[in-house]
Amino acid sequence: MQTRMYRPPSAFGLSDLRYGMRGLNNYHLSCCVNTLLQTLSATWELGDLLEKWEATGVDSHNVPLQLKSVLSAMRSDLPQPAPHHDFLHCLDRNCVRINMQHDADEVFLALLNFIQQQMDDKSLARKIQDLYKISVETHLRCLECFSIQTQSSYHLSLPLHIKEDHNTLESCMNSFFEQQELRGINCCFCSACEKKTSSEQAVRLLSLPPILCIHLKRFRNSHGYTRKLDCRVTFPETFDFHDIVKKAFCTDFAQNDCIYTLYAVVVHSGTAMFGHYTAYVRHWRNQRWYYADDSDVHEASWEEVKSTYGDIYS
C-alpha cells in the first residue's frame, strides 16, 4: 500500500522555521503505525480538532484519546523520539496487534473508525470524518431495460488500481471514474427486470474533502498469494481535480476550487510479505519536506519525494 495525501494550497499553517519533526522508535514492528502518525501529525486540521475535545479521565482503551496525546507530544520541539508506547498498546487492545505487519490503508481506516466509535463528542468526530470524506454517487444502467439506479456513498480514501506498466496519478484517477461494463459473474440485480443483468457502472463525485487521501493499490491477491506491483506511478506536487478528471463530477457538484497540494507520502519498500514503511511529509509550519524512517528524521527535497514513483527497473 502507498498513500498520497493532498490538501488545498491555501490551507498550510504559518511559516515558523524553529519547528522540526520528532521521530518514533520502532517498537515491535511499528513502522506502519509510526509512518501514519507522521502523516497525521502533519495534518494540523486533525490535531486542532482533537485539541478541542475535552475528554474526561484517562482510558487506556480509547484510541482517539491516546492519539490526541501522541500527536501533542509529536508537536513539541524536542530532539528525542516522541513517546508512543501507550498508543501502540491501546491499538493492540483494540485488535490492531503489535508484533504483526499491517497494511497502512487498513490501519488508517481503522483509526478513523475508532474515532467515530470512541469519541464522546460526536459533533467533533463527524468533523474529523468530514476532513477525509469523498462523497460519490454510483450510476448503474441496465443494458436490457436501460433503467438507471443510483446510490450515494462515500470513501475516506480514494482507492486507485494501478496497471502493471508505467502509470500517472492522473491516468489512475481517470480509470477510477470511467464507465465500466459489468457482465457474467459481475452482473447486478435490476429491480425493473427482476433478475441479474449486464449493466454499465459509473462513479461520480458529489463533493471533495479538505484532505484528499489517495490509496495506490500495489498489492494483488491471486490463488491465495499476495504480490506487490513495483511499477512506476508518477504524481504531481499540485493538481486541479477539474483539469485532470473532467467527467468525474455529478451535475449538481458545487465546489469551484478543487486544487490540491501534496503534503504526505506513505512509502512501502520490500515485498508484500516482508516490507518496511517510511514517509515523506511536508511540515505544517515551515512547509519543508522531511523524510521519516522511524526514529530517523531529516530534511528532504522534492527530488527525493519523487524517488517514490516506483519502478525497480528504472
- Ends apart, CA distance between termini: 20 Å
Approximate strand percentage: 25-35%
How many helices? The count is 9
Instruction: Point out poorly predicted stretches.
Output: 12-18
Helix proportion = 25-40%
Largest sheet: 8 strands, mixed
SSE order:
EHHHHHHEEEEHEEEEEEEEEHEEEEH
Structural class: alpha+beta
The count of DSSP E runs of length 2 or more, i.e. the number of strands, is 18
Which shape, going by the Cα principal axes? globular
Radius of gyration: 21 Å
**Average pLDDT score:** 89
How would you sum up this structure, described in words?
It is a single chain. With 314 residues, this protein is an alpha+beta fold. Helices cover 27% and strands 30% of the residues. It has nine helices and 18 strands. Strands 1, 4, 10, 14, 15, 16, 17 and 18 form an eight-stranded mixed β-sheet that branches. Strands 3-2-9-6 form a four-stranded antiparallel β-sheet, with no helix packed on it. Strands 5-13 form a two-stranded parallel sheet. Strand 2 and strand 3 (148-155) form a beta hairpin. Helix 1 (31-42) crosses helix 3 (63-75). The radius of gyration is 21 Å and the shape is globular.
Outline the fold blueprint.
Layout: E1 2-7, H1 31-42, H2 44-51, H3 63-75, H4 85-93, H5 104-118, H6 122-132, E2 134-142, E3 148-155, E4 158-161, E5 167-168, H7 169-177, E6 180-182, E7 188-190, E8 195-197, E9 199-207, E10 212-217, E11 219-222, E12 225-228, E13 233-234, E14 238-240, H8 241-244, E15 259-270, E16 275-282, E17 289-293, E18 296-299, H9 302-306
Parallel strand pairs: 4-10, 5-13
Antiparallel strand pairs: 1-10, 1-15, 2-3, 2-9, 6-9, 7-8, 11-12, 14-15, 15-16, 16-17, 17-18
Helix pairs in contact: 1-3, 2-6, 3-4
